[in-house]
Amino acid sequence: MEYQGSFYRDTWVEIDLNHIEDNLKSIKKLLPNEVEMIAVVKANAYGHGDIQTAEAALRAGASMLAVAFMDEAIALRRKGITAPILVLGASRPEDINVAAELNLTLTVFQEEWIVKAAGILKPELEISVHIKVDTGMNRIGVGTRDELRKLEASITNNRQIRMEGIYTHFATADELDLSYSGEQLERFNDLLGVLDNLPRYIHSSNSAAAIRFPEAHFNAVRVGIAMYGLTPSLEIAAQLPIALKEAFSLHSRLVHVKKINKGEKVSYGATYEAAEDEWIGTLPIGYADGWIRKLQGQDVLVEGRRVPIVGRICMDQCMVKLPSYVPVGTNCTLIGSQKAETISINEIASKLETINYEIPCMISNRVPRIFKQNGKMLAINNPLLT
Ligand SMILES: *Cc1c(COP(=O)(O)O)cnc(C)c1O
């Protein structure tokens, strides 16, 4: 029996790879020719699926990938990705040989780290690093001219460690007011001034800055959220010069439909009471799939109409109130479009009082991802059966 590439529950995510490619191509058009795109595919490509997204991004013209930590980079290498991969977060000096053997590019920001890692790196290996500069985010990065000078010197002194890049990260590039980003840019330029040699890659922009802050382009930009078709923030949504296309949609099917009498209760706690005789449908998705209990009351789409989730969301299932009888097996869209109706990721984010970034990330590994390209199904990724 062949289980791999299959799934046995009627709940799935669809990823439109054409949309990912189109979004990156639209961003590329906004950039001067010499500015390269680094596609940020951390967190399983923001929940979209790392390998398929990475391949789509490379097809669309990205020249490098970026992830948060080494395990994510190793996962991509194991799946056959040979393109450069930058690890954006902190790595341990003890792990430098693994990184070097897999040709991963690490982020560095402490002189002591270089000293320690240099003592561990096997003599036959080499590694590329990018220096992270802290210009106002206060997360990771070297923050002073003096520290940066020492860090550059310690890298330059080691023939096996190549300084391939230097970068910083904006805290507020998605806000209408770009003054704090301007201050960060000024600090970055000032710190670049202390280097004896400028490295191959200089980059500072996330999606928001790549799209709306050309002064910060340097020679590469790191594109995450916009590649997935999502606006970096609601406040700049209206002024984006390109139309982004959402790649992620979430689907399920009614597995049970029944009429309940006025006064009957639904789900745990019996908190929902039918105000009249009502049609109730059951969907096989729950909080263990990332469809969290706070989404009680949220609409889903059935036959192109909005219907609300009623009663508490269970671990694996939830119930919706249908306007009339609908057959078992009917498709239901929790994120995405049916006929003229759309439930966007932004709508779910607003219901949960959070940002759109969090929504595809929170749809768990239990939900298989189906990848579509040119209207055809390209692959199914179901980590449970892989
Ligand atoms: C996640 C991340 C990005 C991507 O940001 P988006 O807003 O999703 O484009 C870029 N740079 C760093 C350092 C990040 O951690």
From TrEMBL:
One GO CC annotation, please? cytosol
Any single GO molecular-function term of the entry would be:
alanine racemase activity
Catalyzed reactions: L-alanine = D-alanine
- Start and end residues of each Alanine racemase C-terminal domain: 247-372
Entry keyword annotation includes Amino-acid biosynthesis = no
Segments traversing the membrane: none
Q: Show the InterPro entries listed in the entry.
A: Ala_racemase (IPR000821), Ala_racemase/Decarboxylase_C (IPR009006), Ala_racemase_C (IPR011079), Ala_racemase_N (IPR001608), Ala_racemase_pyridoxalP-BS (IPR020622), PLP-binding_barrel (IPR029066)
Q: Does the keyword Electron transport apply?
A: no
Q: What class of enzyme is it?
A: isomerase
User: Keywords of this protein's UniProt record, alphabetized?
Assistant: Isomerase, Pyridoxal phosphate
Q: In which pathway does it act?
A: Amino-acid biosynthesis; D-alanine biosynthesis; D-alanine from L-alanine: step 1/1
Enzyme Commission number(s) from the entry: 5.1.1.1
**Where are residues bearing N6-(pyridoxal phosphate)lysine located in the sequence?**
K42
Positions binding substrate in this chain are R139, M315
Q: Where is the active site?
A: K42 (proton acceptor), Y268 (proton acceptor)
One GO term under biological process is: peptidoglycan biosynthetic process
Q: Which cofactor does it need?
A: pyridoxal 5'-phosphate
What PANTHER family does the entry give?
ALANINE RACEMASE, ALANINE RACEMASE, CATABOLIC-RELATED
NCBIfam families registered for this protein in UniProt: alr
Q: Which family does it belong to?
A: Belongs to the alanine racemase family.
Biological role: Catalyzes the interconversion of L-alanine and D-alanine. May also act on other amino acids.
What name does this protein carry?
A: Alanine racemase
